[in-house]
User: Which sequence fits this backbone?
């Protein structure tokens, strides 16, 4: 399904989409790595008190780190847009806003995995996909139609 949607974008918009996805992937390397570390440390906690203190430390760091990453992307977005030849500045603004949600969600999932709560982990994945579906429909209804197809694809 995705491949056919991407072909509908055309070469220029598809190139922009790949560039934006590349930025997301590169910036996501650090949170994904931290997520694995968080899972390991929480799973290796000797008792629940130790695990709770680790969770508190992670939660305190998560918001600060997500704001810093989002602001860095936002500040660097004119340079990124120019370097990657991204025509619509909204795309990088969306990417920066996306990191306000990606990091807390990623770290929360890492905590859930570390606590071995796999049912809750699957529920977060299902919830994320439901939110994406609803958000896509809302964007279409709000007028982000064929002109802003790339915005829908990023989300």
Assistant:
């Amino acid at each position: 399904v995705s491949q056919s949607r991407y072909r509908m974008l055309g070469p220029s918009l598809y190139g922009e989409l790949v560039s934006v996805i590349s930025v997301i992937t590169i910036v996501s390397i650090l949170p994904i790595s931290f997520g694995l570390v968080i899972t390991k440390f929480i799973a290796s906690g000797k008792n629940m008190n130790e695990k709770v203190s680790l969770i508190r430390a992670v939660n305190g760091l998560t918001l600060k780190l997500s704001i810093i990453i989002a602001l860095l992307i936002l500040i660097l977005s004119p340079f990124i847009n120019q370097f990657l030849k991204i025509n619509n500045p909204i795309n990088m603004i969306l990417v920066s806003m996306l990191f306000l949600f990606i990091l807390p969600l990623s770290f929360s999932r890492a905590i859930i995995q570390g606590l071995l709560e796999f049912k809750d982990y699957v529920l977060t994945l299902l919830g994320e996909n439901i939110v994406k579906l609803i958000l896509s429909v809302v964007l279409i209804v709000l007028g982000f139609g064929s002109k802003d197809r790339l915005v829908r694809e990023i989300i």
Observations:
- Residues 2-43 form the longest helix (42 residues).
- The chain has five helices and no strands.
